[in-house]
Amino acid sequence: MTTPHLSCPVAVHATVTCRAAGIGVLREAPVPGAPPLPPRFLRHADEHTVVGIRAVQEAMAALGQSPGNPRAGAGDRFAVVAAPCGAGRPVSARTLVNLREGGPVTVSPHVVPQCSLHALASAVSVGLRIHGPNIGVGGGPEALSEAFVTALSLLDEPGVEGCWLVLTAWDEEPVLDDRGDVPGDAVCRGVALALDRAATGSLRLSLRTVPRMAVLDAAATTSPPGHPSLAALAILLEQAGRAGGPNLPGDCDGCLWSLRLGWGAMVNLDLAPAALGAMERRRIAA
Amino acid sequence: MTRAPLRTDRSAMITGIGAVTPLGNDFDTIADGLLAGRSGVVEIDGAGFSREARQFAAPVTAIPAVAADDSLDRLGRICLAAANAARADAGLGDRRGGPIAAARVGLVLGIGAEQLKGWEADFLAGGRQVFCPDRSPSLVHRIATHLGIDGPAVTVAAACASSGYALALARRWIATGLVDVCLAGGGDILSPTGFAAFYNLRALSRRSDDPVRASRPFDRDRDGFVMGEGSAVLVLEARRHAEGRGARVRGELAGVGMSGDAAHMVIPSDDPTEAARAIQLALRDAGVEPAGVDYVNAHAAGTPVGDVAEAAAIRLALGRAADGIPVSSTKSMSGHLVSAAAAFEALACLAAIDRQTIPPTLNLDHPDERCRLDHVPHVARPHPVTVTASNSFGFGGANLCLVIRRAA
Predict the structure, then answer these.
(1) Residues of A in contact with B159 (CB under 8 A)
(2) Could you state, in order of their start, the residue ranges of all structural domains in chain B?
(3) I need a labelling partner for A183 at 20 to 30 A (CA). Which of A139, A206, B234, B317 fits?
(4) CA nearest to A284, candidates A240, A224, A234
(5) What is the pLDDT of residues A173-196, one digit of tens each?
């Protein structure tokens, strides 16, 4: 039996880190060098959408600054796969409180388009005029692993030229107050990776299955053990952009980050050794 | 004309169907209902759902019980029941023995707002999950565990096209060899905030004095869609694997096309180029010329803007062939199952193939002149059906077309 292996270069990546108190500023702040969003586009957007779309814009800006990069400003036929973990919770809380107090008339029509699982992917597509398919993935604690397998799978679909993979999560899921507001010091992160088979990126994302899948026993679940942290990935990507590159794990030859999936597969983010310290990335700390 | 079909050992064959819907909970009952023009739309208690005292929708009336589903909420029980029925229909066993344990099996569910609906149900019952973190596994993982599925399990969302993307992803996993068998579909439930949000968006029909006639896709007097709920799950299986175990093959998911309008978060683009592109990509993927399509199951939900946009996309994609290809919208009977709509409408295509009859569009009394197509109003039409195309379009400009072909 063959062991499927899905793999793609990462043309560019970017991370955005923002405290809840800074989301309002990030909502309005344009990203220099990136395609602009329509006016007031993020007015009703969920926190995850704000952070995620800004990460894509940062990556686009970095891509545009790469001399001779044939993809600068391109990506019109890219898919958008976005995995916001637990998105829409603050707006949902406010909506439910208002529903209880004021009835159905208080429910905003923006709840469905702006807080559903597809909202971040759709916002990236609509806001940045990307005509490939846009898909939300995950929604729960397994979002990260679900996003990788989905993005790598979609690259083979007809008409799909690449994929923006967008991941967002709070470092720790915040406890909301009774009005649904998030504590100001809660940290939300966004990571954007441009998967492009035509690129010569400094990173490569791959998924490889083990030769024989284990059949789980009755007590097991298909969730990845320990639910991987987006924060850990974001920090490694930020380190990778600094001179000298990241501190690689001792048991990982050229591998920046890996994730073991509960169903018998491994996702790896590998470094191209020659490109250590020369990786494209941007970062905002708001 | 149809080109030589692109059939390989890893073609995605449909070997099982499971459903929990307003029109019934098994393939034959649903097919009978669709071809008889039976509506699942009824008056419901509107309290808490909208400003209207009288409200209507297409609800699920009975959820088959599945062992070990006590921990699941209504959405979970509907999805589990459909997935379990699909597995049984395919003749797959469970992890204690039988073919499912010997194969690489995956699960993909299109569910657009699982967390939101879970928080809502908990809150309205007096809970506080929406305020406090909850790291319990997503529904797709819990259902995979219930069914003994040990391969990849993913939730996807593309608004009203969600379960179509689930089927597309499952087909891709089969093509790449990631799995041999994949259960794929979607589910959705009626909920107070969802209902109120769509109502306040003016997306829902307000024809509350005549519920059965409210869902009227392509009709000049349409005024919005009718909310529905349910789940539909198909078993996709690599051709070689299905043949190897002698499975009954109900059809083939032969082509997929997808694109994005990139125009608006809610309103479909008035430029049909991208929606038509999804249809054209799907036909090309299946190796089918426009004239080779025998039936189009339209997304057509009955909204004033959406139906016109889709009619233009069908015309652009199919060209002159559109004059002779029957088109209908089964949402006129089922209501709009939202996340589950695309999978349910794939099932409707399989019904058309199985019965060699096109299901009708109910309430299409006066076709909108801007939606000129070969409509099938009111009553089913006997017609040879080998190749079907099913459109699904969602908020955020998500466009998807599935080509489903009769099994060779």
Answers:
(1) 112-113, 116, 118, 122
(2) 12-244, 255-405
(3) A139
(4) A234
(5) 999 999 999 999 999 999 999 999
